[in-house]
Design a protein that fits this description.
12% strand, alpha/beta, 51% helix, single chain, eight-stranded mixed β-sheet
């Protein structure tokens, strides 16, 4: 064991001289740790200051535009529908068609916020454009609030799907800026929790019977997991362990209640899942019923989902969200509770495999029988976005002048 020379002694001086001898390299004495870290942090902060400042300014500008966009668009949507109430009495189908078009435009505006921030979508798997005229249910994995915005974007180019779509969302969305629009459109807000489950399923059944056919709805978006991945994963894994079910990491075990209600209410028993227009002898006067289940899997790079705040403020770097579709004809979906549970569990086990493959390779695996997976980049038309945004602001200006005129007439 070597003793350390005491400061001020001849041995210490000799050691210092030896350390400065030519040909020998020793690290320079370290500055106090606190001082070094502080200097580094200050340097990094000074270098990043312009970039952080620009991000903050851009976020504030985007937020201001979003507020103005909501004020004019949502207010105009409500005013138009109030004026069109006589049409609802005379021709309900035409009324809900017009409402659906405006609803699609509103969702297109939300999609544009992410589009201009560089949050784009690439689609994989089956091409769902081939079934846009049929009735279908989308079963989607749920990671964050941005999942809804992602679907709003990637369904914009699927003809009138968005206009004729019904969403099943957590009741908390009722209290957002878009809540009043969803209530008018006929979306369903479901309250989570065991104490509410039976009542909510009964309300869902009544809601579908009252609003789905009468408003000419075609597609339903459902998140069977019943909550965000980060909130439900631990509970789901505990349940899986107790019931000898697969241990899932990237998704959670789905809940069957809402899916079973939807199938029981909307599936026409004689339906065989054939595409629309397949048999001219079918009775057009009768609804075909639900024909397809679209198993939809959303994947974010590095498993980092986008939330609604990021979508609005745009402070995250541009990123590509990947959406995988797999279409199942309704004839292949069992309706009995136990069989349906097994079928639904199997879909989410497949989602787990899809996401594992994606996080390892950056791409979804090819379909069975194919050597390569083909992706399709989803795009929005800048011209179309400009037109609907212009229509929203012009409508807002028009309604403002109308209310101002009546105000001066009355007062």
């Amino acid at each position: 064991m070597t003793a350390t020379p005491r400061p001020g002694t001849h041995a210490a001086a000799a050691a210092a001289a030896h350390s400065r001898a030519p040909g020998r390299r020793f690290p320079a004495p370290l500055a106090p740790k606190g001082r070094t870290d502080s200097n580094v942090r200050m340097a990094v902060t000074l270098e990043e200051a312009p970039w952080l400042g620009w991000i903050l300014v851009k976020a504030l500008m985007r937020f201001a535009f979003m507020v103005a966009n909501n004020l004019v668009a949502i207010s105009s949507y409500i005013c138009y529908l109030i004026v069109l109430q006589p049409l609802r009495v005379l021709d309900s189908k035409r009324f809900w068609y017009i409402e659906g078009i405006m609803y699609k435009w509103l969702l297109g505006m939300v999609a544009s916020w992410g589009w201009y921030a560089g949050y784009t979508v690439v689609e994989w798997g089956d091409d769902i454009k081939t079934i846009t005229n049929d009735e279908a249910v989308m079963l989607v994995n749920h990671q964050a609030t941005g999942d809804v915005c992602t679907l709003m974007m990637c369904l914009q180019d699927k003809e009138l799907v968005v206009a004729q779509m019904m969403w099943l969302m957590d009741h908390i969305f009722k209290y957002t800026n878009f809540g009043i629009v969803s209530l008018i459109h006929g979306d369903f807000f479901i309250r989570q929790g065991k104490s509410h489950r039976e009542q909510q399923l009964l309300l869902l059944k009544k809601h579908l019977e009252k609003n789905y056919r009468s408003r000419d709805r075609k597609w339903i978006v459902l998140f069977p997991e019943g909550g965000f991945l980060r909130k439900r994963r631990e509970t789901s894994q505990t349940f899986a362990k107790k019931n000898n079910l697969p241990f899932l990491t990237h998704v959670t075990l789905p809940r069957i209640g809402a899916t079973k209600i939807i199938l029981n209410v909307l599936v026409a028993r004689q339906e065989n899942g054939s595409p629309a227009g397949g048999d001219a002898r079918e009775f057009d006067s009768k609804p075909k019923g639900l024909q397809w289940i679209i198993d939809t899997t959303i994947a974010y790079p590095k498993a980092e989902p986008i939330d609604i705040q990021t979508w609005i403020l745009g402070y995250r770097k541009p990123t590509v969200t990947h959406v995988h579709y797999r279409i199942f004809p309704i004839k292949d979906v069992p309706l009995e509770t136990d069989e349906l549970s097994d079928w639904l569990y199997q879909r989410f086990i497949e989602k787990e495999d899809l996401l594992s493959h994606f996080y390892e390779t950056g791409a979804f695996p090819p379909p069975k029988g194919h050597k390569e997976a083909v992706s399709r980049e989803m795009t929005l038309s800048n011209t179309w976005i400009f037109l609907i945004q212009s229509f929203a602001f012009l409508s807002g200006y028009m309604w403002y002048n109308i209310f101002q005129y009546f105000y001066h007439c009355l007062f």
